[in-house]
Amino acid sequence: MAKIDYTGRVAIVTGAGGGLGKTYALELGKRGAKVVVNDFGGSRDGTGGGNTMADDVVNEIKAAGGEAVANYDGVHTREGGGNLVKQAIDTFGKVDIVVNNAGILRDKSFTKMEEDLWDPVVAVHLKGAYNVTQPAFLNMRENGYGRIVMTTSGTGLFGNFGQTNYGAAKLGLVGLQNSLRIEGEKYNIKCNTIAPVAGTRMTEDIMPPEVFEKLNPAYVTPVVLYLCSETCQDSGQILCAGAGLVQAAGIFVNDGVFLGPEPSNPEAVAENWAEITDKTKTLKQLANVMDQSMEIMKHYS
Ligand code: NAI
After folding, report:
1. pLDDT tens, residue by residue, 174-190
2. How far apart are CA 26 and CA 76, in angstroms?
3. 142 near 151, Cβ under 8 Å?
4. How confident is the model at residue 11 (pLDDT cuts 50, 70, 90)?
């Protein structure tokens, strides 16, 4: 097939100073996109900050013949998200692509999960995506084109001990995607989600070294690059990617059990529990919340 190219496109990658985001920014730059390399430059828990991380990636893109500009705003504030998008528009004229990738970790078991661990994690991941995507979406809507990528996590989709804050924020991004897919549809704005597995500073002390080495972030890059491209006409997909494997994840309903038409009782739920929760038979992905109501209404028609 024809090479996927981003010439004429303007891309914002948040948290692009290192790890996965850096690989997305470099590859977008190599393939012709004008890239806004955002990074707050802090440590893994979001403390500190500085310009070096973003600057280094910009220099690397330029050295390879690409165009890029650094942005040091924290995406966790409305002001930061607004500045970032404004800089993209002021510098390159528009925004076509947003990869919401910036992230921090503040792990603790749930009983010890205080607000100083909860709030910043939700602010960077979930509110950060809102802070950046909303002003970008306005510009995309005017231009009739946009590609947005959210970054969820296996923790949000499947769970992990000690990461209630992170998991809640990460699955919130899937909720954000689901409605944005619908709101962006008539403006050719596609929104998809990546659930990466990669060896980065975020995972270096939770993975055995031999596993860490196999999980080169470069395995995730092509999937995100595809989601950022004009070739991608799909929206609302969740892709798990790592070490060469790419899988689709999803939220489904089964056929369930109709306990009506009269209101039933908890004993009826208990008696039917195995069948209600049986996910080995037909699973359906619903297009929107109305579809969920239609699932109920079909038992009354
Ligand atoms: P990383 O720590 O190398 O990258 C995150 C980047 O975000 C850092 O460069 C950091 O400086 C930047 N950042 C943090 N707070 C920021 C803020 N407020 N504003 C702007 N930039 C900020 O980690 P990695 O692994 O590359 O993570 C990238 C994304 O992928 C994150 O959202 C992470 O949660 C997600 N992820 C990673 C997985 C993995 O296996 N590495 C697994 C699942 C999800």
Report:
1. 999 999 999 999 999 99
2. 23
3. no
4. very high
Catalytic residue list contains 24: no
130-151 pLDDT tens trace:
999 999 999 999 999 999 999 9
Q: 64 alpha carbon to ligand 1 midpoint, in Å?
A: 24
CA distance 252 to 260: 22
Strand 189-196 versus strand 238-242 pairing type = parallel
Q: How many CB atoms lie within 10 A of CB 185?
A: 13
Cβ contacts of residue 46 below 8 Å, gap of 6+? Answer: 40, 76, 104, 106, 120, 121, 124
Confidence (pLDDT) at 211:
87
CA 286 to centroid of ligand 1, rounded, Å? 30
- What is the Cα–Cα distance from 69 to 54, expressed in whole angstroms? 9
Pocket of ligand 1 (CB under 6 A): 14-15, 17-21, 38-42, 44, 46, 53, 74-76, 101-104, 124, 128, 151, 153, 196-198, 200-203
Counting Cβ atoms within 10 Å, is residue 122 exposed (0-12), middle (13-18) or buried (19+)? Answer: middle
pTM recorded for the entire structure: 0.97
Separation between Cα atoms, residue 172 and residue 179, nearest integer Å? 11
Q: Which of 6, 24, 72, 166 is catalytic?
A: 166
